[in-house]
Amino acid sequence: MRRVPIPPKPSSLDSLEAERERVAVAAFYAVPANKSRKCDEDFRAYKAGDVKEALHKAFRGKCAYCESPIEATHPLVVEHFRPKGGVKINGKFQRPGYHWLASRWDNLLPSCIDCNRPRGQDFPFGRKPATAGKANQFPISSEQRRATADGEETREDPLLLHPYFDDPAEHLEYIWTKPGSLELGEIVARQRGAQKSLKGQTSIDVYALQRVGLIRQRAERLTLLLGQLELLAETREKIEKRGGDPDLKPVFTRILGEVNKFLGPDKPYSGMCRQVVRAFFTRVFP
Question: What is the pTM of this model?
Fold first, then answer.
């Protein structure tokens, strides 16, 4: 997961049709008897082609949560950060959800199926397979502050990372040195003071970021990156031993260029790779 600047809003979300939809949905849920009902109005505005295109461009064809490439396996899913139709609270699905945010631009994100939908997943260390994926989950620090009307969401304290408003690197840490029982490519909540980040751990759990298939993909990427970093360190050591050998400096530059190829915003798991490169340079090139 990586931080992404919020892109320009697609014009379709400001169209008359989108406004008509918002008014119709608001009118439906203004009736007390409708609070627990599915809205008769079909949410359509967020499905517009320019919305999907803008999200695809902003996230470089990757899932906003796990950074896996999407289009190679399935169409982009427009995900609602705050669920539009209902919210799962204490294990129970409750309506009406954040219906007023159904076409709010900063509430829409691109997601892969495994992060977005409840699916059976395998997990490491002998944990039993379980259903995981965000779906209608939106945990907050206090249910007493749960928004029930437009504007009230500002009082909430979400326990999920949002790539526009949070820096995932402050909350998530990727395993690249295989300490203890952890495996290459796993993800853990980063230590923040005396405790680990609750927002980081909750995001790992809700987005299913610790699923085995995803860990394997990250590990493969890390193996390639670490190979280049080790070559970089070995080449620098040779240059220093040979008194600044000019013949090796172009080799160092070339390997550094290979490392940089892992860090581009269009590359899979670039948030992880950037974090690992920073840690490697701190450790090896202090």
Answer: 0.93
